[in-house]
Amino acid sequence: MSTNITFHPGSVDTQERVGLLKQTGVTIWLTGLSASGKSTIACALEQHLLHLHKFTYRLDGDNVRLGLNRDLGFDEKSRVENIRRIGEVSKLFADSACIAITAFISPYKADRQLARELHEKGGLGFIEVFVDAPLSVVEQRDPKGLYKAARAGTIKDFTGISAPYEAPENPDIHIRTNECDVTAAVEVIIEYLTKHNYIS
What we know:
alpha/beta, 5 strands
C-alpha cells in the first residue's frame, strides 16, 4: 500500500449525520450456506426497512461479484479478498448512517471477525446473522443447481461440499430457515434492531 496517503476528514461528523437522518448506521451481516435463505431474507428486510422510511441498502454476493469483485474467483485467497472488500464497503455505508444489509456466504470465521473489527474500530454497529439450514435441506432446495454440479465435480471449491464453511459460534442472531418463514426471520431482525436502538 502506498505510504503517501492522508485521511481527509469531512465537515460532517457522525453525530450530525445521525441527528439529521434520525437513525444510526449499522451493518447486518447475513452468513450461511448457499440456498440457506440469505438473499431472500435480505431482500425482504430491505423492503420492510424502506417502508419504515429507513435509509437502507442491500449488498448481495452474486451482484457484487458482477461489478466490484468481478476480478475475483472462488479459491480461498479470492474468497478472503471478496469479504475484505465487502467489510470495507459496508463500513462506509454504516458510517453514512445507512443500515447496510450484506448477504454473503462468508465461510471463514476470521474474515467475519475482521469485518466486525473494522466496524468496531470506527464505532459502528455490526450484527452477525447466522442464516442456518442443514446441508441436506439446502441441497434439496438447490435453486441454481449448484450443489448438484458440485457433487458431480463440475464446480470446484464449493462451500459445504468441497470447501469448508465455518459456522458462527456466537452469532448476534441465529435464524433456522428450515424452521421459520421469511416473514418470521425479518421480524426477528427488526426486533433486534429496535431493542438495540438502531431503529425506533
